[in-house]
Write a structure and sequence with these properties.
Number of strands: 23
Strand content: 25-35%
Structural class: mainly beta
Shape: globular
Number of helices: 3
Order of helices and strands: EEEEEEEEEEEEEEEEHEEEEEEHEH
Radius of gyration: 20 Å
Distance between the termini: 43 Å
Helix content: under 10%
Largest sheet: 6 strands, mixed, barrel
Length: about 325
Amino acid sequence: MKLVAVFYVLVLVPLCNCRLISIPLRIANAGAPARLYPTPGTSTSSVTASSEVKRKGGQNLALDSQPLGTISFLEMVNNLKGDSGRGYYMELLIGTPPQKLNVLVDTGSSNFAVAGAPDPYVVGYFDSALSSTYQSLGLDVSVRYTQGSWSGELGKDIISISGGPNGSFTVNIATILESDNFFLPDINWQGILGLAYSALAKPSSSVEPFFDSIVREAKIENVFSMQMCGVGVALPPEEKDAVGGSLILGGIEPSLYTGPIWYTPVKEEWYYQVEILKLEVGQQNLNLDCREYNMDKAIVDSGTTLLRLPEKVFIAIVEAITRISPVNSMTV
């Protein structure tokens, strides 16, 4: 089954706050009627309970399928904070009684994991022994990333999301007992929230990812969207608090974007792997074979503030920037 997705990508403007366009990326069924969400300027930012697809102005308008009342996407706005150079994180309450932790939002992995033991680089950790609702699954789990790795134990517990759908939800959670270069000095998060497909989940794809559990239990649309507002941009001290964004679970908040939403297919359901056909710098096409852009894969990954490129593409971009930039205005 061919799937497409929705994802917000930031267009960085130095010394500015949120300036974004939307490039779609998480799951809508391409075999079903095309889905467009309420356009900016509509009178409501709550999605009314309905599974009906209505036509308006020749376009399909998908309403949220939650059967009980409404969910407010406005309440999810600004639920992310930025850890400069390290990505975006949000607050979760885990266990009974609830323990508050921040987790890095990562579309490049599929496990939900939090520190389960003291670590010199985290200010707190989830103590599963203090949660009356924690259930150990008796499975060891380990995950290796491009940078860093961790190992621990897989279990289940209830969570609630600050600035997310109302209620408590039972999810798979890994407690990190050992790590290598995963937690770093001065980070503001104590875990990671993997939002990719189950194919990447460890120790096996049978482990239901966090978002899949929320979709099933909260009965929201199988769509999320992200707004990212400047992590990694050098902002003056008075604007540091403005770095952040929004993770909208269940759809798209109309006030956070302008213009039409364009969809692109997810080429393979593990990472959010897409196919890049063209790159431009200053409206100049790099004119490389598209195989160069997609070597060995092109993925959308919110867990990093870096743009990783194949060597040939990197060289072409640097040369293009150099050509269009004033003399001595940049250093490479």
